[in-house]
Amino acid sequence: MVSLLKLAKVTEEGVRFLSPHDGTPMLLTPEHSISLQNTIGSDIIMQLDDVVATTSPDHARMKEAMERSIRWLDRCIAAHKHPDRQNLFCIIQGGLDLEMRKICCEEMAKRDTPGIAIGGLSGGEAKDSYCKVVENCTTWLPQNKPRYVMGVGYPEDLLVSIALGADMFDCVWPTRTAVRHLYFPPLPFAILLSAPLPKFILFPQRFGNAITFRGNLNLRHASFAHDFSPIERSCTCTCCRPASSNGDGGGDGGLGITRAFIHHVAAKETVGAHL
């Protein structure tokens, strides 16, 4: 919805928009949104919410969106066919107005959904405003349920948000940045899965920049062509742990991925575009 707002009109019925492909009129209602997600079968599904950019000066529209999101949640709950195996998350709205956020948190919490998302952020607001919203929302929300901040993906934002009480995140940033010749790590996923924390963030993307605890490594650079050390020397994750030298499955049980290997795949091999 956010990316297609210029093509959309939000009403109480739902969101009417024109297909970005051929201009065909389409209608997405809370019920249809849930039906699609029920069909997909994902473990976590999201309510349809009314989103307004945090930088909008229209207080009345922000309030309308917040209140509509609550009403749409009720419709989503009623339409949800598989609550026994799919977890419906509500989405907190209210812009940067803490009073609206508090009202929304209280109303959404009454619906007792399995998890709760904090939406409408990362829209260009100042970092201190972002932090105030996340900190207050995580304080107002139930402590025994996952609190998911939507659209947050910069490494520093993840760490700050965790410190403020958030549990889950998602963002297009890793993929978009990978397309711009960057390559990075599964820090948030390791946190979510309570797995041993890798010391670099590594997504299987096609270009070679690794975000490590020592900063970014542009592994496409020629200086890494003969660097056979692991991506992060002190890391014990599967990628960085040494592999068996004779291929018998012995050794430390890792993949032994080296900086030189990533350099070759990203800078020399066409297969790198498909990883």
Could you describe the 3D structure shown?
- The protein is α/β, with parallel strands linked by helices.
- Helix content is 33%, strand content 14%.
- The chain has helices at 30-40, 59-79, 98-110, 127-140, 155-163, 173-179, 187-193, 259-267, and strands at residues 8-10, 15-18, 25-28, 44-46, 87-92, 115-118, 147-149, 168-169, 200-201, 209-212, 215-218.
- A five-stranded parallel β-sheet has the order 4-5-6-7-8.
- Strand 2 (15-18) and strand 3 form a beta hairpin.
- Helix 1 (30-40) packs across helix 2 and helix 2 runs parallel beside helix 3 (98-110).
- The chain is elongated.
Explain briefly what this protein structure is.
It is built from eight helices and eleven strands. With 275 residues, the chain is α/β, with parallel strands linked by helices. α1 packs across α2, α2 runs parallel beside α3 (98-110) and α3 packs parallel to α4.
